[in-house]
Amino acid sequence: MPRVSLSLLIPAVRAVMGRVLRCSCGVFLGLIPMAQPAEIIDRVLAVVEGEVITLSDSRGAVELGLITPNGEADVIADALEQLINRQLILIEVERYPPPPPNSAAVSLRFERIRERFTTPEAFAHALDVSGMSEQRLRDLLRDDIRIQAYLEQRFGSAAQLTEDEVARYSRENREDFIQEGEVRAYAEVQEVSRDQLLSERRRSLISEWTVGLRSRANVEIYYQP
Predict the structure, then answer these.
(1) Are 220 and 18 a contacting pair, CB within 8 Å?
(2) Within 10 Å of residue 57's Cβ, how many Cβ atoms?
(3) Which of 79, 22, 63 is closest to 220 using CA atoms?
(4) How many CB atoms lie within 10 A of CB 56?
(5) Which of 34, 61, 88, 152 has the fewest Cβ atoms surrounding its Cβ within 10 A?
(6) pLDDT at 6 over 80
(7) Beta strands 40-41; 182-183: pairing state
(8) 139 with 90: CB under 8 angstroms?
């Protein structure tokens, strides 16, 4: 049997799946032949506004470090939730696109991912079993940069803080600012407190906004743990 790379098969299969799903409610993807003795079964986990998210998408996102697992017992379910939200946000980005990222920023992220693997062969294998080419990975990273720029543009000013809020956060989180058994002076931790509170505030705003996007979107989930 000739070697068949998933990175070559997945895009074609995905296109077929999209057409099938639009014409019917079927959620089936056949077995994909590989060089290994065991066959890998890929399947549709969700469809977000017509965009298919597969099992290999979720596995690849975790394997390549495209998402950060939240520590849930079901890693695939965790990854799927993050990919659904990512797709919903990307739809919004397409409506009000920020300036495109430069190629150097994309290449830097790409190299950081490649460096996570001990050998070029290990990196190539991770791409292959994820059904992803290097160009597809670069496209995903480019979208990630666009998403970050959009979120910063939309929520950067909305999460402004007052000095009283920063001081209160520092007091309420004193245990985070202990050094050698003593709580550090507020002047020493003021900027750190501001950064942490700002990050929490932005995450909360983005989370609430994403919930709203999802309530208005057509999201079909087929994954069964």
Answers:
(1) no
(2) 24
(3) 22
(4) 26
(5) 152
(6) no
(7) unpaired
(8) no
